[in-house]
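Quick one, probably user error.
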């Protein structure tokens, strides 16, 4: 302890002894508040990639629970007498089910088993709720019985329950099972215990701690970010590989059991990591997205199809909707707004109320299209703009500048977005960390009179093996975001992407939150986003060095804001250099600063937070002391620091 104290005193003495020329002198103007920072400034973007929904945030543990995958028994092992049927179904949109009947042999069984998504993760002493829609297979037969087992990775039964089936009509049956061990790779087995057969459909298993059908730990990871905006459901998911597989929000609402299956466009897209079993059950649909927005305190930003299938995969004009056939797509957008905001006396507002939410969701923004480019997009978008403006004039409309951050298509997209007078333009950039360091001033010279910027998808991507969520990527994003904040008069909001990745089911990286069947890891990028989300303030303050923005000189980046609600000053500083930097911040207009608190993220550039080792990079706090209107700060090398007083 004495040695550590001596080293700390030695370091402090050395810092104080630095010549004046080594000090970085920053000035914050406190008397004049700058641009308003939108409550939506820092948020999140969800797309069902990397098993982000089914197998991820959606807590359903059974894969292909309604037997509707094109290969009807994909995800299932069957034994004995099991037959796939579709006569007299329980749910018209999901008509397939299995008939399980007696094998007529004393030492044989009939049944089905499911390993879920990369195994079923069971936690000791957590209750798991099983449900199934079932009926007696033969009219007039006696009651039947099934046995439901949770089985560990060694094929030993953990716990089981028996369920009696007593009706000739479809009926929901339930039971609960509480394991006495933890196992990340279990399975569920159901077999017939009676001579009487049964028909089974929508076989389901949820952990009891789920929140409205969503995984509790992953919801907590989102809630703790304090996001201002939540964009969903994509991404390229909105477009689909073709129009038939685009995300159709109307299929994702209403009775969960009757929501039709959709092919996930990411199942075959990446030939190096294909998942032929990747589909969308819509169990987590638009209603659940809106509920989640409320839960985490974020404004919802739904995105709808503009009638263009993914342009990367569809060059033929015939693959897209003709201009004279666009009305159903426009109606989908208008009906979505009614679903979110309409009164209970409207068709779609009534459906929302019937699902359990009579009050409106207070939707303020809608996105039309994803990464579209060229002439095909604006001529379709214009139809949406006219229709939405006519019926909902206060609704903010978000258009796109295409998939790239620069170039002819980007310039054309912006030109057309200005012509159409959309409110927000969605920019995407997945670039190396160096690009983020070099582009902190990207928005300094943007047109202040045109549409506002929505940085809808961005992340620092290393090269080769470095395309991971390491500290280098997170630090570059922290530096870049000082430029977003400084230009809050033109940057309306921003969302990191993608959000989730299963450690065994990823196709795209890096990602904000990694998880397995039992736990998750908050990446260094997550902590950067959290620090911005919890320290966004309400107004920009001018912060300069030698009357210029602090955006990369000698590795230093900085921005400052004021929070009217808490009456606090907040400064964010990123130091990309190897060495610590002594920074002297003068707050013009203040008489006394007093004590301040600093929150620091720092580490080796290669450091990651991984599942099972999730706290390699995490915030630490330090106490700071001002003298009159000056606050001296030592910013470590390769660090991001938030100062608040």
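Nope, works fine. Designed sequence:
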């Amino acid at each position: 302890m004495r040695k550590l104290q001596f080293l700390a005193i030695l370091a402090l003495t050395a810092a104080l002894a630095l010549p004046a020329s080594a000090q970085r002198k920053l000035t914050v103007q406190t008397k004049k508040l700058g641009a308003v920072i939108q409550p939506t400034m820092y948020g999140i973007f969800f797309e069902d990639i990397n098993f982000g929904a089914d197998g991820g945030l959606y807590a359903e543990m059974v894969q292909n629970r309604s037997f509707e995958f094109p290969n009807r028994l994909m995800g299932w092992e069957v034994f004995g007498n099991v037959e796939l049927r579709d006569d007299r179904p329980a749910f018209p949109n999901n008509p397939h089910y299995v008939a399980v009947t007696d094998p007529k042999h004393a030492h044989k069984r009939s049944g089905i088993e499911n390993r879920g998504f990369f195994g079923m993760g069971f936690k000791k002493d957590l209750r798991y709720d099983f449900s199934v829609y079932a009926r007696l297979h033969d009219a007039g037969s006696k009651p039947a019985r099934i046995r439901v087992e949770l089985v560990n990775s060694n094929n030993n039964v953990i716990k089981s329950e028996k369920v009696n089936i007593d009706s000739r009509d479809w009926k929901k049956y339930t039971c609960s099972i509480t394991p006495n061990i933890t196992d990340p790779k279990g399975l569920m087995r159901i077999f017939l215990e009676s001579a009487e057969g049964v028909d089974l459909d929508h076989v389901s298993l949820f952990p009891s701690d789920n929140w409205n059908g969503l995984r509790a730990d992953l919801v907590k990871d989102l809630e703790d970010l304090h996001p201002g905006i939540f964009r969903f459901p994509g991404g390229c998911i909105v477009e689909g590989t073709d129009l038939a597989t685009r995300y159709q929000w109307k299929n994702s609402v209403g009775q969960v059991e009757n929501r039709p299956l959709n092919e996930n466009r990411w199942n075959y897209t990446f030939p190096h990591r294909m998942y032929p079993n990747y589909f969308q059950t819509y169990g987590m649909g638009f209603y659940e997205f809106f509920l989640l927005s409320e839960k985490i305190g974020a404004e919802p930003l739904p995105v709808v199809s503009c009638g263009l299938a993914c342009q990367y995969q569809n060059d033929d004009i015939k693959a897209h909707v003709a201009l004279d056939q666009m009305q159903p797509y426009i109606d989908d957008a208008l009906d979505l707004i009614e679903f979110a905001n309409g009164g209970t006396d409207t068709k779609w507002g009534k459906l929302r109320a019937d699902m359990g939410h009579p009050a409106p969701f207070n939707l303020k923004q809608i996105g039309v299209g994803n990464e579209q480019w060229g002439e095909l997009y604006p001529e379709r978008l214009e139809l949406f703009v006219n229709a939405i403006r006519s019926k909902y004039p206060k609704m903010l409309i978000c258009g796109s500048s295409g998939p790239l951050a620069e170039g002819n298509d980007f310039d054309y997209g912006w030109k057309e977005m200005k012509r159409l007078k959309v409110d927000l333009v969605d920019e995407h950039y997945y670039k190396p960390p160096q690009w983020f360091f070099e582009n902190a001033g990207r928005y300094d010279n943007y047109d202040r009179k045109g549409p506002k910027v929505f940085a809808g998808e961005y992340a620092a991507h290393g090269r080769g093996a470095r395309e991971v969520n390491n500290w280098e990527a997170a630090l570059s994003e922290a530096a870049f975001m000082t430029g977003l904040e400084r230009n809050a008069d033109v940057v309306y909001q921003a969302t990191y992407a993608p959000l989730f990745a299963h450690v065994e089911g990823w196709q795209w990286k890096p990602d904000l939150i990694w998880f397995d069947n039992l736990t998750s890891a908050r990446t260094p990028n997550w902590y950067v986003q959290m620090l911005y989300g919890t320290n966004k303030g309400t107004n920009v303050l001018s912060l300069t060095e030698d009357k210029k923005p602090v955006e990369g000189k000698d590795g230093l980046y900085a921005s400052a804001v004021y929070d009217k609600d808490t009456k606090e000053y907040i400064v964010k500083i990123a130091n990309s250099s190897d060495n610590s930097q002594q920074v002297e911040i003068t707050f013009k207009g203040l008489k006394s600063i007093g004590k301040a608190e600093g929150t620091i993220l720092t580490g080796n550039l290669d450091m990651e937070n991984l599942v099972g080792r999730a706290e390699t990079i995490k915030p630490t706090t330090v106490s700071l002391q001002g003298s009159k209107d000056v606050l001296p700060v030592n910013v470590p090398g390769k660090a991001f620091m938030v100062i608040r007083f």
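Residues 376-391 form the longest helix (16 residues).
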